Amino acid sequence: MSSEISNAKIIFINGPVVKAENAESLKMREMVLIGRKKLIGEVVSVENENATIQVYEETSGLEWGEEVISTGKALSVKLGPGILSNIFDGIERPLERISETGSAFIPEGIGLISIDMDKLWDAHITVKTGDYLEEGSVYATVQETSMILHKLMVPPKARGKVVFAEKDGSYNIEHTVVRLVNEDGDEIPLRLYQEWPVRTARPVKSKKAIEKPLVTGQRVIDTFFPLAKGGTAAIPGGFGTGKTITQHQLAKWSDADMIVYIGCGERGNEMTEVLEDFPKIIDPRSNKSLMERTVLIANTSNMPVAAREASIYTGITIAEYYRDMGYHIAIMADSTSRWAEALREISGRLEEMPAEEGYPAYLPSRLAQFYERAAYVETLGSEEGSITIIGAVSPAGGDFSEPVTQNTKRVVSTFLALDKALAYARHYPAINWHNSYSGYVSVLKEWYEENIAENMMELRAKMLSILQEERKLLEIVKLVGEDILPDDQRLILEISKVIKVGYLQQNAYHKDDANVSLNKQYKMLTVIDTLYEAANKCIKEGMPISKIKNEDLFYKIITMKYKVSEENLELLEQLMKEITEYYSSLERTYKKGGAQNEAEISEA
Amino acid sequence: MKLKYLKLDKIDGPLIVLSGVKQASYDEMVDIVVENKLHKKGRVVQINRDRVVIQVFEGTSGISLNNSSVAFSGTPMRIPLSKEVLGRVFNGIGDPIDQAEFYADEKFDIGGRPINPVARKYPRDYIQTGISSIDGLTTLIRGQKLPIFSGDGLPHNDVAAQIVKQAKISGDDTSNFAIVFAAMGIKHDEAEFFRKQFELSGVLNKVVMFVNLADDPIVERITTPRCALTAAEYLAFEHDMHILVIMTNMTSYAEALREISSAREEVPSRKGYPGYLYSDLASLYERAGMIKNSKGSITQIPILTMPNDDIAHPVPDLTGFITEGQIILSRELFQKNIYPPVNILPSLSRLMKDGIGEGYTRDDHPDVANQVFSAYTHVQEVRALAQVIGEEDISDLDKKYLEFGRLFESKLLNQGFDANRSIEETLNIMWEILVAIPKGELTRIKPELIDKYYKG
Ligand SMILES: Nc1ncnc2c1ncn2[C@@H]1O[C@H](COP(=O)(O)OP(=O)(O)OP(=O)(O)O)[C@@H](O)[C@H]1O
Ligand SMILES: [Mg+2]
């Protein structure tokens, strides 16, 4: 890294914000090194000969008059093999390496370290001298983990003729494996990595329509509020309502090729939990450990606030790089509110004019820019790839009217509203089926019909309307009790209970319930529908609800999620048969004995 | 090199400003001598060229623009620590206030550094507190940060004292456990209550106290928990001890932060608290935990009072977003004479899932707890309905739920200050009270477990 000479000197220090004078040579958004400890910072404003810098490390001990060194480049990350299965801080410094120094704590002044520069990778060179390469063309591949083949691509805007191609072999990422010469005769060395400024979206050939779901294995999401590959989603909720657990579930079970998990201003232990658990969990699709497709960006709540602001961009830039190889990436950002607060804190120290609740006026545009980086695309290398962004939102007081939730709501298409009351009742996931929505239902309809079942979406709508009706009925029940309702309405309440307990509730810690295939979801829905239709028919014929609600049968249906594993889904067909038989025999007895003969019915 | 400055530019609340400073580093400590005799400590909180803003501990009263001298120390705030801190009492800046001097060879920066998530060990061992509502439903885990959300006049101090008294935090080795107590803005009699309780529990020589009472300087309230947590880290990670940290009252702490922030004319966010309240609280709470290269642990029980019993107030709200759950005390239960008055529905222990069940507490624990939560939720709905239509007119099933609610509160919750229940006793009580509702309602419990434990 070439450090330029500059005469910039610190004149002002206030937490993570410092100002330097004689800073004419510093550029906006440039990365700088500050003081004797060479703390890393980024120029956020330049005025006359003064520059304001946000510092990504603790500024304790910094003195006025210390110098600021220019690096000549924007805050950027190194992109190459060695990212996957790893954990980095908000500016891509490897936490594993930092801990190898022996301390359990993170010191400041670690310097600009990134992915491992010494590790040797078995690289296969896919081009030969004389080939002409365009931006996005692959020139080498490395099996980065057992799940991901890492494709080294010509960086955007570069192109040229191959004048040198290394043979296959073991190289560290600094090694130049290919050299191009472009039209102007400039030589372009290609190594096993490239650098990219985090605040700039990586270019693509084109954005494509969204038409495939991101299958998550979570019933309430896949069935009712589906996510789409290339789409966006927000999970807002007060503390303890289940944002993190939901994101962990999505990181574990969704059918993405790769997961970027950004712990942005949240708990250290939650990162540790992923680090301890994921290597042990086997991905059902590839039979490999989940860690093989996961990268963690950890900037916990007690780490410097400016790096928290950057962590979101580091995460998405990494995701874009892998997307460019033709992979489908899902990003979990937990929590985007902490990122917004970092913006607010820095903005406050810059003495900018606050808008709503102290947040800077540019909060909405920053949020929109971030979510805009999600898309289903055709890459420069003409592959298909996608980035799905799933952001947790932590509204103060659990009140969704605050600025971060509102501004997020405007730019995301799936809104999974977590509900305190459900969480208190330990109804997990506490996703409220009345306030949540997915804008992808209609675009995904075709996919569901083709790949799962013709009537999947119809069943979905039917179940939702039962739940809608329940809501209205519960308002009445609250005032007069349940006994007064006519039997067909009481059936709605009973079926709703089955949907809620037997279907919507999903235990993240149960081996057969944590992750459920769409096929099983569909069959379970059909079971509930069979129950509803059969029971409803009996009600119409005048049978009392007390006879229709058979405890054993209902219990069986509510617990089918635990008892029926993916391997023996035929048990669900059996259950449907059992339901049909039960009610038709009930009907027969009823018809035979007439409406009054209740004794006989109860024997049925 | 230690230059002294004799003239101040400005005194403003807890802050002084001086200019012409040749060398100063951010966050460093200064020594202020007032009228050649009284020493006060201060900390650099802003540097603007040679103009430096200093936050004065012990308050600025008595300081005038030209009766004091300021000397810069060149280092951030550090406190001396050795194992001898056990049994001692300090003020909020780590000076002993129990008459004797305190010396130690090594000094530690109270700011702390973030624990590297890679170096953390995920906490999984439960601590039996002997309190049923906690052990059974919001289980405390060694290394967890689990605050008590309370209200003015509620018995949060008793609950904390009872935990200290009964907690089997020590595991196999009792010599290895200690308590760090941080008092922030509490009254003298509250502090005395804790001291007394520690004495009665026979742990006084295992307690380190950092005390900043309601009438002590506000600025020291900010450093009190930092000194305490530095001592906790020292004992836990240098000496492999299991440390229980009690910090009370976090609301007073946050108010002190607000007062200083306002004196510095910072842009306020909700209710006048500074925008960095979340990060600031996190810099305290995240100092709980366990690390790989030490056998020790830091378990935190912060106590806070919710102004107006409002859980959406910024202090409980932001705390809840950082800690690993919360134990919430209810005024309604307290008025019903139930002790401890834990409102279990909004209470939560996030680390519970990994520390209970077979091999930890008992195989039925997760399911039976889940069932109790679900049943008690329904009790609330039924009570609301009964209020409207009268208890006679509700369904038979709902009547059974009401009975369950009564049993839950009288048998499980209301155990008193002296009852110390084992986890088996607690779980057995849960099964006993579940008998009040029909077996068919137990949809959250696996059938095998019902067969094994159901007593109906
Ligand atoms: N799907 C689930 N299955 C089982 N338990 C759950 C589920 N979702 C949430 N929980 C329970 O709720 C607790 C809180 O969930 P989580 O940590 O995800 O909340 P959060 O919304 O991220 O809160 P915060 O904003 O404070 O981080 C968990 O520790 C767990 O006990
Ligand atoms: Mg969370």
Describe the structure.
The complex is a heterodimer of chains A (604) and B (456). In chain A, 35% of the residues lie in helices and 22% in strands. Chain A has 18 helices and 28 strands. In chain A, strands 8, 18, 21, 22, 23, 24, 25, 26, 27 and 28 form a 10-stranded mixed sheet that branches. Chain A has a 6-stranded antiparallel sheet with strand order 1-2-5-4-3-6, with no helix packed on it. A 4-stranded antiparallel sheet of chain A has the order 12-11-9-14, with no helix packed on it. The radius of gyration of chain A is 28 Å and the shape is globular. Chain B is of the alpha/beta class and 456 residues long. Chain B has 13 helices and 21 strands. An 8-stranded mixed sheet of chain B has the order 9-16-15-17-19-14-20-21, sandwiched between helices. Chain B has a 7-stranded antiparallel sheet with strand order 1-7-4-5-6-3-2, with no helix packed on it. In chain B, strands 8-10 form a two-stranded antiparallel ribbon. In chain B, helix 2 packs parallel to helix 3 (188-200) and helix 6 crosses helix 7. The termini of chain B are far apart. In chain B, 54% of the residues are buried. Strand 1 of chain A pairs antiparallel with strand 5 (38-48) of chain B, so a sheet runs across the interface. The structure holds adenosine-5'-triphosphate and magnesium ion. Magnesium ion is lined by residues 243-244, 266, 334 of chain A.
